[in-house]
Design a protein that fits this description.
By secondary structure, the chain is of the alpha/beta class. It has seven helices and eight strands; from the N terminus they run H-E-H-E-H-E-H-E-H-E-H-E-H-E-E. The chain has an eight-stranded parallel β-barrel with strand order 1-2-3-4-5-6-7-8, surrounded by five helices.
Length: about 210
Amino acid sequence: MADRETRAKLARLAAGLNARTPHAGRLPPLALMTDDDRLSDPVAAARALPRGNLVILRAHGDARRAALAERLCRVAREHDLVCLIANDPELAARSGADGVHFPEARAHEAAHWRACRPEWFITCAAHDARAIARARAARADAVFVSPVFATKSHEDARPLGVMRFRALARAAAIPVYALGGIDARTALRLKDAPIAGLAAVGALSV
């Protein structure tokens, strides 16, 4: 659980990165990724986000995902947040979400939903340069590149590290968010990275 001061520091760091990166200013600088195992109260965590930021709903089980989508979309409207539904564009459309987040394996679907919902904010997960290129070709608005650092969400995944992540971001030609092991301490190591913002789970918990 992160305290208010820690969350505020991470928000300031994300805003600073966003402001220094060309073409990123229209995008939310800080993203809360929900997690069934690591985030016990995603609605409270979303309420604690500063206005103008992003929450991405990731949830297993159709019923749970639908119920959370309704609640998070309501919180997003009340608190001036952007709300995306991961891996379920149909639910995103039904719930009035602001867009959809695709896993790497479904990044190609961004092109279809871009045509169907041109007003949506559409993002994709990516773990390497080829996945970033696929998301860009499918006309996604941004990619979440991970894991930058060691993360409890995927303890067996090898982190990219700062140098490799920075190189991927510089070559991406699409806005990039840093995900994986991001907190107020590790984010300081990304101060020169050309990224749209930061994404976290535990560092934004309440």
